[in-house]
Amino acid sequence: MADFNVDVAIIGAGTAGLAAERKARAAGARTLLIDPHFSGTTCASVGCMPSKLLIAAGNAAHHVRAAGKFGIEVGAPRVDGPKVMARVQRLRDDFVSGVKKQIADLPDGVTVKASARFASPTELALDDGRMVAAKAIVIAVGSSPVIPPPFEDLGDTLITNETLFDLEDLPASVGVIGAGPLGLELAQALARLGVRVEVFDKSAQLAGLEAGEPETSLREALKDELGFHLNVEPEARRNGDGGVTVSWSENGETKEADFDRLMVATGRAPELDGLDLEKSGLELNENGGPVFDAATLQCGQSPVFIVGDANGDRPILHEASKEGTIAGANAASFPDVQSFERSTRLQVMFTEPNMAKVGAEPDEDTVVGKVDFADQGRARAMGVNQGVCEVYAKAHCGALTGATLVGPDAEHLAHLICWEIENGSKASDLLNKPFYHPTLEEGLKTALKQICKDIGLPKPDSRDDAELPGDFGSD
Ligand SMILES: Cc1cc2nc3c(=O)[nH]c(=O)nc-3n(C[C@H](O)[C@H](O)[C@H](O)COP(=O)(O)OP(=O)(O)OC[C@H]3O[C@@H](n4cnc5c(N)ncnc54)[C@H](O)[C@@H]3O)c2cc1C
Ligand SMILES: NC(=O)c1ccc[n+]([C@@H]2O[C@H](COP(=O)([O-])OP(=O)(O)OC[C@H]3O[C@@H](n4cnc5c(N)ncnc54)[C@H](O)[C@@H]3O)[C@@H](O)[C@H]2O)c1
C-alpha cells in the first residue's frame, strides 16, 4: 500500500519540475513534487543568476578601466572582493527566496521533502521509507558538475559553480579547467575583477564552436584578459602553499602554474545515478539515460517523462521550463500524449563579446553571410568592435536557418534572428525591414546583403546599399 497515491509525481523541484507540476495541476491532476532540498532551482542558486551577478561586477570594473580610450582618466579601479561577493550573495539570496516563496505557496500536500528512486515503472521509493504510486512520473532531476579524475582529490582548493558564489573574498588566482560557456563566462568575470586567470581545455576551440572565423574572433577578443592553453590535457595537485599546481604539456614541453584555486568547468551530467532506472523498465541509451521523444518528452510508450538538464538535450533555462510544461500536460493526460513543436535552438554565452548560436548548423544547402564587427560603425563608436557573425540561409530559397554570432550585444541579434527563423523569413524579408542608424543591428545587413547577392534574391528598388558612415576605416 503506497503512502501517496497521485496522478503525476514529479522528481525534482527545479525550473523544469516546477513547470511540470504547475501544468499538470492546472490540467486537473493530483500532483506530488518531490525534492530533498527545495533549494530554489539551480538557475537562481548556483547557475544563471549568480553567474550573471559576478559578470555584472566584472564588467563594471572593466568599463572603468576602458574609460581611458574615450579620454576619461579615472585610474585603475580598486576592487573590494568581499563587497563584490556580498552583493552577489545578497541578490542571489533574493532571487532564491522568490522561488522558495513560489514553492511555499503551492497547495497543501503537493510537496514532499525527500529523494526519490524508481521501485517499479509507476512507483517511487522515497529515502524516508515512504512509497509513492503514480499514474505518470516526470523525471526533472537536473544535472551536476562533472569532475574528471585528475581533479578529484583537490579538497577545498577545487571550486565549481556550486561553491564559487559562496566565497567570502575573491582568490588572487584561479586556474579554470574547461573553456565552455560556464568556464569562459566566469573566467572573464574573475579576470575583470583582478583575479589572475588561466584557462585550460582539451579542445582546440573555445565554447564548443567549430573552427572558423567566429571562433577565431572570440579567442582573439578574450586573449588579452585570459591566458589560454588549448588542446592540452591538464592535471592538478595540491601544493605546499595551500594552493594548486596545474601541469600540462604544450608544444612538447611540460609546464606548470600555481593558483590559489582551481575551478573545474568540464560540463554537467544528468543527475540520474541515484534513480535506480533499471527498475523503471525504460529503454536506456548508451549514456544510461532514458530514450525519449523531444516532441512529447515521453520515454518510449511508458508513463514516464524526462525534462530539463536531466535529459541532456537542451540544457538551458527556457528549454527546461518549456519541457516541464509539455511533460506536465502530457503526464496529466496520459495515455493521451500530444506532440508539441519545439522552438528554434538558441544559446547565448554572456562573455564580452557575447557568443550565440541559433537554429541549425550549416549543411550542404547552406549559404553563409558574414559580418566582421571590427568595421561596424556603432561598434566602433562604442569601442567594442570585436567579433565575427555568420548568418545561415537555405541556398535554394534564402530562408534563414541559423547563425553563429560573436559580437557586441550579440544576445539581442541572436533573438532577432531566432524570431525571424520562427516566422519563416528569408534573408531578403529581414533585409527589407527598417534598420535604425547607427545600431549594432545594422551589422546584420552586411551578412544579409551577402546572402541575397550570392543566391540572387531580388533587392527592392527602394533600398540603397551604400556603406554607412562609420562602416569604413579601421580602429
Ligand atoms: C553556472 C551556470 C550558469 C548558467 N547560465 C545559464 C544562462 O545564463 N542561461 C540559461 O539559459 N541557462 C543557464 N544555465 C543552465 C540552467 O541553469 C539549467 O539548464 C537549468 O537550471 C536546469 O533546470 P532543471 O530544472 O533541469 O534542473 P535543476 O534546477 O537543477 O533542478 C533539479 C532538481 O532535482 C532535484 N533532484 C535531484 N535528484 C533528485 C532525486 N533523486 N529525487 C528528488 N529530487 C531530486 C534537485 O535537488 C534539484 O532541485 C546555467 C547553468 C550553470 C551551472
Ligand atoms: N549562458 C549560458 O546559457 C550558460 C552559461 C554557463 C553554463 N551553462 C550550461 O551549463 C552547462 C555546463 O557548461 P560547461 O561550459 O561546463 O559545459 P560544456 O560541456 O559546454 O564545456 C565543457 C568544456 O570542458 C572541456 N573539458 C572537458 N573535460 C576536460 C578535461 N579533462 N580537461 C580539459 N578540458 C576539458 C570540454 O572540451 C569543453 O570545452 C551546459 O549545459 C551549459 O548549457 C549555460
UniProtKB/TrEMBL annotation:
GO terms for molecular function: dihydrolipoyl dehydrogenase (NADH) activity; flavin adenine dinucleotide binding; NAD(P)H dehydrogenase (quinone) activity. Binds 1 FAD per subunit. InterPro entries: FAD/NAD-bd_sf (IPR036188), FAD/NAD-binding_dom (IPR023753), FAD/NAD-linked_Rdtase_dimer_sf (IPR016156), Pyr_nuc-diS_OxRdtase (IPR001100), Pyr_nucl-diS_OxRdtase_dimer (IPR004099). Keywords: FAD, Flavoprotein, NAD, Nucleotide-binding, Oxidoreductase. NAD(+) binds at residues 178-185, 267. Disulfide bonds join 43-48. SUPFAM superfamilies: FAD/NAD(P)-binding domain (SSF51905), FAD/NAD-linked reductases, dimerisation (C-terminal) domain (SSF55424). Residues 348-447 form the Pyridine nucleotide-disulphide oxidoreductase dimerisation domain. Its cofactor is FAD. It is an enzyme of class 1 (oxidoreductase). Residues 7-324 form the FAD/NAD(P)-binding domain. The active site is at 437 (proton acceptor). It comes from the Bacteria. NCBIfam families: PRK06292.1-1 (NF004939). This is Dihydrolipoyl dehydrogenase. The lineage of its organism: Bacteria, Pseudomonadati, Pseudomonadota, Alphaproteobacteria, Hyphomonadales.
